[in-house]
Amino acid sequence: MQKQLNPDLFGTSLPLNKSHNPQSSSQNVVGHERGASLDHILNLDQKVADLRLQLSELKSTLTDFIAHSKMTQTSYQKQFENFANAIKALQSNDVTLQESMQKTLSHQHHKSSEIQAIESKMKEQLDRHQMVLRSYDLKLNQLQEHLNNKEEILIAYQTQLQRLKRA
How many Å apart are CA 29 and CA 7, to the nearest integer? Predict the structure, then answer.
């Protein structure tokens, strides 16, 4: 029995001799098989060459795709790094601003406390001054009353002195 390739394997159809008649001319079969096998080899050669060309094109396309992917990846990596750096800068600015605001708020609180203390002292001094003024006013009124009393006494003495002079 002779070995034959499956004709469906490479998409070619070879005429097969399906008769099992051992008396057919062996020369005709051998010649037919030799021609078919040469055609078949040439056809396979052509298909292998086509496949190699397709493989080469596929490799080229794949290489281009890989290069493009690497460029895209590098670009995305740079964008990611830029975003990361921008986020770090924003965080740093945020921390600096927060510290600055904290210092300003602390300074303002300190100033406010100082102003309240000064206002409290001023109020105390104004209250003392008011008390001194009231005391002074009271003493002035008492002195005025005392002077008025002395003046009345003086007038009374003058009046009596005048009577004594006349008498």
Answer: 17
Q: At which residue do the structure tokens 């904290």 appear?
A: 102
pTM flag (> 0.85): no
Length, in residues, of the chain: 167
What's the number of CA atoms in the CB half-sphere (13 Å) around residue 131? 6
| Cα 83 to Cα 58: distance, rounded to the nearest angstrom | 36
CA end-to-end span of the chain: 193
The DSSP letter of residue 141 is H
Task: Say which residue the tokens 């390739």 belong to.
Answer: 5
3-state secondary structure of 22: coil
What's the pLDDT tens digit per position in 51-74?
999 999 999 999 999 999 999 999
Dihedral of the CA atoms 61, 64, 69, 75 (nearest 10)? -160
DSSP E strand boundaries for the chain: none
Q: Coil, helix or strand for 16? A: coil
What is residue 25's DSSP assignment? -
C-beta of residue 10 within 8 angstroms of C-beta of residue 43: yes
31 pLDDT more than 70: no
